[in-house]
Amino acid sequence: MKKTLDILLEMVRMIFVIFILLFGYSFVNIIFIVLLGGLEVIEETVYFNLFLILQTGAIFLLSTIFYRNKLQFSKIFKSETQEPLSKKRTKQLFLISIGAIIVSYFILITNLFLT
Description:
mainly alpha; 4 helices; 79% helix; elongated
């Protein structure tokens, strides 16, 4: 019973971390989108879903890196099998997520100039 409760508490903590990261990023994202002409510029195009998928995937990758390397070892539920991501894997995932964010804004800017 205690182990189940520990796992549930850890899941709540992971959801809270993801929520805080997405909430913080949404403020930054809104500023960029408003400066580039608003969401209406891209909302009615085919690229809207791609824009959202790239940004959401990038934030989930960043939250995974943050959780696995920082928060995992200060948790309530201790596991001997989980280890932090290697420096190489961390760098790869970080570059992929930053690249996805840059590509999503590139799609927004390109669409702005094409319309």
